[in-house]
Amino acid sequence: MIVILFRKIITASIAGSLFAILLGIIRPSPFGEPITSLSNYLFSVVSITLIYLMYSFPVIFIYGTLTSIISDKLGAVVSTKLENDRYEHIISGVFHLLFGLVLLYVSLGASILFFITDRILLKNKNNYRLSHAMKSLAIPITVWLICMGIVYIENIFF
Q1: What is the pTM of this model?
Q2: Contact 93/117 with Cβ under 8 angstroms?
Q3: What is the pLDDT of residues 21-53, one digit of tens each?
Q4: Burial 104-143 (b: 16+ CB within 10 A, else e)
Q5: Angle subtended at Cα 24 by Cα 70 and Cα 113, rounded to the nearest 5 degrees
């Protein structure tokens, strides 16, 4: 059980960071300001990625980790009742989608990204330890520091 938690923490670190970056690329201007140039677009992406990361990562980390563990356990129980292990991933995916419907499209995208990332890590069958989970937390911190550095440099020189 504890190994599953470590894998879920690693998954949350990767999926939360990717989600903030992808959402920043897709919706760089959530309040409708016009984007007039490529440099304006890129700066908007970097700036809003900070905000998306700041607000979405804790939710993905806590809610996503807990609901993913629940989804996997429910998938295992249902597939055992059906006496077919092939259904475990499908049922777990359905529960990920159901838990991801909390905020409709935005959270649904995060849950799909979380599920895909978790399945990739599960396929590797690596024995994840606490040290791996703690090191994975450097991913969102690094993304945040890089974006802050870009915003800082942009404000100094431009």
Answers
A1: 0.90
A2: no
A3: 999 999 998 888 888 899 889 999 999 999 999
A4: eeebbbbbbbbbebbeebeeeeeebeeeebeebeebbeeb
A5: 25
